[in-house]
Write a structure and sequence with these properties.
Blueprint: E1 2-5, E2 20-22, E3 28-32, H1 48-64, E4 73-75, E5 78-84, H2 90-103, H3 105-115, H4 119-135, H5 147-159, H6 164-179
Helix pairs in contact: 1-2, 1-3, 4-6, 5-6
Length: about 180
């Protein structure tokens, strides 16, 4: 049993590290939607509040299926909730996947697509991202790097003593706006 992140989000599988922490008698499975940088409405019409409401609807759905869930919270750029379940409970994953699909996935996708930056805005956001990574000890990223190059450079920096947790937080914060959903 342990605590692990799982999500039906299409962005999660390529958007950061899988956090697994063992030692809990009754593990918590943290589940979440995706990213949010501000409360402005997106081009597709999904506001941050609409997105939060959709994640809350998914949490209610999981709760109605008999699982205890935590309140919806924002951690970094992810809105989500925890499900009190054994980490090996396939039923909890199936329930979550169904609830996410029914309540969150369309709104999440619309909201995340609206966070993407282009042109001069993208360059400015990329410079902020590079500054964030430098503070974490990752000083090799340039605006020419794509998502996979950035990920590789963060991983390499870990061996050189960078604050890897802070670097991954930077990646999670800026990944959607820079590289898309």
């Amino acid at each position: 049993m342990g605590m692990g992140r799982f999500s039906g989000s299409s962005t999660k599988s390529r958007r950061g590290r899988l956090a697994v922490v063992g030692g809990l008698a009754a593990g918590l499975i943290a589940v979440g939607g995706g990213a949010a940088m501000n409360a402005a409405s997106t081009l597709d019409g999904a506001s941050e509040q609409e997105y939060i409401n959709a994640v809350q609807d998914a949490a209610n759905c999981v709760s109605e299926a008999g699982y205890q869930v935590s309140p919806v919270t924002k951690t970094g750029v992810t809105y989500g909730f925890s499900v009190n379940a054994d980490g090996s409970d396939g039923r909890a994953q199936a329930i979550y996947d169904g609830c996410h699909s029914a309540h969150t996935s369309v709104t999440e996708r619309a909201y995340l697509q609206g966070l993407e930056t282009h042109g001069p805005d993208r360059e400015s956001v990329y410079q902020e991202f590079i500054g964030c990574l430098r503070k974490a000890g990752v000083d090799t990223v340039t605006t020419a790097d794509d998502e996979s190059a950035v990920t590789a450079k963060i991983t390499t920096a870990e061996a050189n003593g960078a604050n890897i947790d802070q670097a991954w937080q930077c990646q999670q914060l800026y990944l959607i706006p820079l590289f898309g959903a």
